[in-house]
Amino acid sequence: MDRRLEKILLSVQKPARYTGGEYGAVVKSREQVDTRYAFCFPDTYEIGMSNLGMRILYGVINGMDGVWCERVFAPWGDMEEAMRREGLPLYGLESGDPIAGFDIIGFSLGYEMAYSNVLNMLDLAGIPLRSADRPELTPLVVAGGTCCYDPEPLAPFIDLFVLGEGEEVTPEYICLYRQARDEGWTKEEFLRAAAKIEGIYVPAFYEPVYKEDGTLAEMRVREGSGAPETVRKRIVEDFDHSYFPVKTIIPSTEIVHDRVMLELFRGCIRGCRFCQAGYTYRPVRNRDPKLLAEYGKAACEDSGYQEMTLSSLSSTDYPCLLELCDDLLDYCAPRDIGLSLPSLRADTFSMNLMERLQRVRKGGLTFAPEAGTQRLRDAINKNLREEDLLQSCRTAFSGGWNGVKLYFMLGLPTETDDDVRGIADLARKVYFAWKECTPNKARGVRITVSTSWFVPKAHTAFQWEAQITREEYQRRVDLLRDELKRDKSITYNWHDPETSWLEAVFSRGDRRLADVLEHAWRHGAKMDAWSEYFDLRRWTDALEACGLDGDFYAHRERPRDEVFPWCRVDTMVTPAFLWRERERCYESQTTPDCRTKCSGCGANRLLKGGVCDG
Length: 614
Known about the structure:
3 domains, 20 helices, six-stranded mixed β-sheet, Rossmann fold, 19 strands, four-stranded parallel β-sheet
C-alpha cells in the first residue's frame, strides 16, 4: 500500500471504503494482462457496491482473458481533500495503481446528480476532462447507464457512450480497443470503427445546430464520419444465458443493499407513462425460475449473506413468482435467510404471496400508487384501482404487518388540487383498513406517505411535458401537509425540490449544458446527490455565466415536432407510440399491460422472433 494512502487512512471517515482487499475481489497479475479497465462509479463505495449492474459488468469484464477490471468510487470530501494535499491520484481498489495509466476509464451513470463527480474523478486521476483534450487512444473514456439515453450534457467529456445493456457490447468494444492499440490506430480511426458497433454512440460524430430561440434545428451527423443516423440500444436477448454474479465481492464495510440480489426479469409489462425505465428496458425477458433458485442458493452459500432480494421493476409481475418463492423458501427458512420483494404491485399482492413471505422474518411493505385519485392514476397509466390497493393492505394487515410506505408524485401532468387532497384521503383509507383488519391494535400502525417532484424524462410519453415550477410544487406540498397533519398515525415526507429541478434540467438537456457542468464543478460542485454538498446557487450561477436559463429545460412544454437532443438515440419504442400515450393521458384513458394486449410500442423488433415475454 502507498505510504501516502496509509497516512491518509488514519484521518478519514470509513477508511474501509478505500482499502480494497475484500473477499471475492478479482486480483490479477499485472504481467499477465494487457488491458486494464477502471470501472468508475461516481458516488460513494456504499452506493456503488449496492449496484447490481456494476457487479454484473465487473464479472463480465474480468472473465475476459488478458483484461483486468478494477473498481473506482468517488471519495468523500475528507478523503478527496487528503488525496489532493498528499498528491495521491485516484486509484483502482484492487491494485492501488493510479487509473491514469489504465487503458479504459468507464463510468456507470444512473443519476444526473452524479455528473459533477464524473468531472471530479477525471481530475483526481489527472486525466483531461474533455475528449478533445485527450487526442491519444489511451486512456479511452466511456460511459453507460440509464442517463446515457440523453447523452448530450456529458457529450464533450466522453469518447463513447454505451446505450442499453452492457453484457455483450462491453466485450465487443474492449476487443476493438485492443486491436486498435496493438495495430497503432489513431483515436479517430478507433472511434469510426466503434460507431459501427450496435449500441455505441460516439458524440464527436454528431453536431448540434441551434435555432435563434435556443431549440435544436438538427443533430447533424458529421460528414465523412460514417456514423449511423440513429444508434439503437443493445439488449441481452437470451436472458437465461447472460452472466449472473453468483460469486461476488463481499464488502468490508456496511453498504446500502448488503444482500444477494436476484434479477427476475428485464423490462416491464405496465407502461406507466412517466417511467423511463419502463420504456427503455423493453422488451420484457424473463429468467427461468429454476435457474434463479440455483443462483440464489449458490450466492448465499458463497457469500454467507442472510438476506435475499428478488429484483425487477415490478417483481409481482414475474409469472413464476410463487413457484420461485416456494423453492427459495425451502432453502431460506431453515437457515433464517430473509426473502424480500421490494417492487410490489398493489394489485398483485395476494394471500398466497403473503403466506410465503411470512415463513421467514417479515420486512416492510412498500406500494407506489403514484397518484391520489383514480382519474390521475388512469392518466399516467398506473393501471391500479383504489380497491386493489386497499385489499392488498387488508391482506397484509390481517397477516400481521403493521406498517406500509406509500409513494406518490406531485406535479404529474393534469394534476389538480383535488388529486393532491386525494393522496391524504387514500392514506386515511389505508389507516381504516388497518383498524378493520389488524389482529393486534395495541401494536399501532405506521403509515408513511412520501412524495417526490415529477421530473419529465427523455424517451417517455411525458418527454414533451413541462415540470411545474418550484413555487407550485411547494404549494402542493403545503396543501398535502395541511391535509395530513391531523392524522397522527400518518407520517409525511417530501423530496427536496432543488435537486429535482436540476435533475429536470439535465434529464432533457442539450450539449450546451456541458459548459454549465464544468463551470459549476470548477466552483466547487461535487457529490450533488448529497445534501451535505449540494448548493443550488453554484448551478444557477453557472447557468447565468453560460448564458442559459434552467427553466428553458425544466419548465417548458415542447411541441410535438421539436427536435430533441436525444433524437439520434433509438430505444426502439417509437416516438409515435409515445405521443399517442401522451394524448391518452389527457383523455384519462389507460393502455392495457403487455400481457393483456400488445400496444405496438415497437420494442419487440429487438427480438429475433418478435415476441416479448410479457
